[in-house]
Amino acid sequence: MPQFPEQASTNWILSTFVYTVGAVAVLLVVVGLVFIDVGLVRRRNVLDTALQKIGAAMVGGLGTLLVGYPIWQWQFDQAFGVPDPFLQAMRDWWLGGAFTTTASRHIDPSALPEADVLQIFLVFFVTFTMATVALIHTGVVERIKAVPLYVMSFVVGAVLSPLVGYLCWGSLSPLTLRGTHDFDGVFPLYVTAGTFVLVLAWRVGPRLGAFGGVHRTGARPAAQNLSFVGIGTLLILLALPFVTLGSGYIVPDVGFFGISFTESGMGVVIINLVAAILGGAVVGLLLAHRRHEPTWAFLGPISGVVITGTLLDIGNAWQCLLIGALGPLVGLGTASLLRRIRIDDPKVVPLALGPGAVGAVLTGFLGWGTRTGGYIGLEGPYAVGVAHITPWWQLAGVGATMLVAGVPAFLMCLVFERFGGLRADAAEEVVGLDRARWGVENSSDDLDAAAAPTAAPAGAEPALPAASPLPAGHGESATITSV
């Protein structure tokens, strides 16, 4: 086979290393989500929660590895005038494609320059999907069945998240070329996951006792170890600088650009990221003390990052600090709205969809007129800076993402509700998913403690537990008697 040693230039190898670190860092985000969920669920569901999350992430990543990545590459084949761009992207980039299975030194740079970089970017996309799916699972822990979760995870990885990326994330995506701007994957990750969870949590229904209703013990869902939430948050914050640098172009001897080919710099992006983290952290800490809800202290920094995700490459540190400080407030407002309409998701929609959507629109105002889109070396409708950021195109990106994620989520829910159901059986939820599904019991939790009989007076018969309400379908009407 012919050899192309220019594919192994030092500049491209260094870029490959940056994207490799970014891909691995996204896996650290998944680890952080595992810790957060394990800390917030009942002890009786810890094993099942961790297993489902890791399993769903793997299945979603497989979908992207098999056929998802070519959907994103489609935009580049269109811009470069490749015949039958979608089919050619599939032939080149599916798991058995020419570009996926051929070493870079055997790929002609005229057909695919920086082959190693784009091959590693495939892995970055896979791990990105894994984080998206792990976030979706966070919104329906302790009650969703495994099969629907895994099937939905595959569809998200194979189609939905890459399709949102094709529309909104990339310098040659259709909406980017009109003025929609993203940097840190807010549309394909946060808004996609948040929208999917909004639909899924609505259809699955609330956890037992989530809104004051009672089941066997009369207790609300109680976190088993909040310190794990702090550990998970720190792991995510550790990963974010490397993930953020992976969300842009490194052009040797020219500079660093956002994924929309917006002018930026590595140092500026990291400074903006830290400012956003600290803004969200301080306001989250204030909310935690004011409301006596410690989770806001842990999750406030994450909401600050999400709300500034579209701004990090084009904003400045003061803007990111102040907008990041709005993150926990938007999250709190979103969570209050969800409680009002009785949707049980205190994490994903409040931290991903609410701040992600609000931050995207705010970026439209703060970055109004900033040039975006295009690709270096192209001209005409694909030239660098061909579009300008506007609030309405940011809003269009939010709307398109919610449609792409929300409509399929609703349709899949209807299918699973018709054939087998989405939710675990009520009896499984009462006894605990670890014991019901895996025959393992980690330890007793607050519910077991509440269910323990109190000491009866001498000579008295111990009282039998009364029947208590359990969810039927969405968790509100059936009853079962504890024995």
UniProtKB/TrEMBL annotation:
Keyword line: Membrane, Transmembrane, Transmembrane helix
Compositionally biased intervals (Low complexity): 449-472
Domain Ammonium transporter AmtB-like: 20-439
One Pfam family cited in the UniProt record for this chain: Ammonium_transp
InterPro entries: Ammonium/urea_transptr, NH4_transpt_AmtB-like_dom
Transmembrane annotation, as ranges: 12-38, 50-72, 117-137, 149-167, 187-205, 226-245, 265-288, 295-312, 318-338, 350-371, 391-416
Region (Disordered): 449-483
Subcellular localization: Membrane
Membrane topology designation: Multi-pass membrane protein
PANTHER family membership: AMMONIUM TRANSPORTER, RH50, ISOFORM D
Name of the protein this chain belongs to: Ammonium transporter AmtB-like domain-containing protein
Source species taxonomy: Bacteria, Bacillati, Actinomycetota, Actinomycetes, Pseudonocardiales
